[in-house]
Amino acid sequence: MLRHPRRLLAAALALSAGAAGLVLAGTADAATTLGASAAEKGRYFGAAIAAGRLGDATYTRLLTTEFTSVTPENEMKWDATEPQQGRFTFTNGDRILNQGLSNGSKVRGHALLWHAQQPGWAQSLSGSALRTAAINHVTQVATHYRGKIYAWDVVNEAFADGGSGGRRDSNLQRTGNDWIEAAFRAARAADPGAKLCYNDYNTDGINAKSTGIYTMVRDFKARGVPIDCVGFQSHLGTGVDSTYQANLQRFADLGVDVQITELDVAQGANQANIYATVTRACLAVARCTGITVWGIRDTDSWRTGDNPLLFDGSGNRKAAYTSVLNALNAGGTTTPTSSPTSTPTSVPSAGCSATVSLNSWNGGYVATVRVRAGSSAVNGWTVTVALPGGSALTGVWSATGSGTSGTVSFGNVAYNGQIPAGGSTEFGFQGTGSGPTATPACRAS
Ligand code: XIL
Q: pTM of this prediction?
């Protein structure tokens, strides 16, 4: 639960005690790497990596043998990708991307908007200038990596610590409470294939902060704001909350995937057990799609002195490593599912209906359309939208489009034509000019 856990005086003692008490379990044919074992359970096992370490042979050996997902530790953050306004540098981000893709790994993008690690020019902006710059940043970076990223942390750490359950104050928050949904809509428009996550820390159990985020995600799902996943950083101290798994499950029950995104655990008597508890929790929640540890060796960790990772400074497996591998190999059969399970806010009586939510700016817009089935299942649909004069369509996702101005029609694609009675699906489009204001017509076929 600790954000910046202090160095533990008993660390060395506890490490040797933990290692001595270790029991090597597993069967003769059990998987022997984290990635392979997680894959047997339909999940990935990832690490945060740094471009500057890719020349280290021990590091890359562990990376390529043990892990099936990578997250750039710093290389895709705002200060790294847009050091001057409108001038983008993707060199190091691309190195992480290519390292991951060439190894057949997933790549988690981290992070499009965050109050920390902003370039100086963004730190000094405010109001609509900052909002416009932030949305442009989301669009440009997500577009550069379009089609390559498994999941983006679209917004990182936007909620306050403590008991308020509210937002953290930041320059981004001061642009208006809707900055988070504007970022998600822009990210969806730029890369419709990436899962879009909200990511935060101190959310490792049912508490005021995680409940604040839960309420936001529930609201996003109800209003059709595109969100697919929630990341739980899980920078842990010497204990883990008894509601850790229940907390993951309540988010999954909202119809989003959950992921453990930055796991590290303070060295101490409980380190191996806490790692196992977190691993088992993910395996027990069907929509927990994977675990990422925040670094490979203790010496690679941002938590200097905490020795919070699975490999020691020489690249040897620690007791915590064996504990995770055993937990993965012993894991049950809760297969991850990512099918949309969103609940409609109101159920029309027959046929289908459609509602639009708009994210507009001066000169353009992104429209997200929710298509709802009535009291009978729908097997194919067409939505017709009247665009205002001067508006022109520039892109469509999760639907086929016909026409670019005036009255335009959208039809389902193969995977979202069938909607169960009372269920719903979503598609979107973007355009120049101003977006539609009238409620669209929906026809079930
Ligand atoms: C950390 C990196 O590990 C450090 O190298 C950097 O100096 C600061 O950021 N939450 C996050 C991560 O979402 O991006 C942070 O990474 C750790 C906390």
A: 0.73
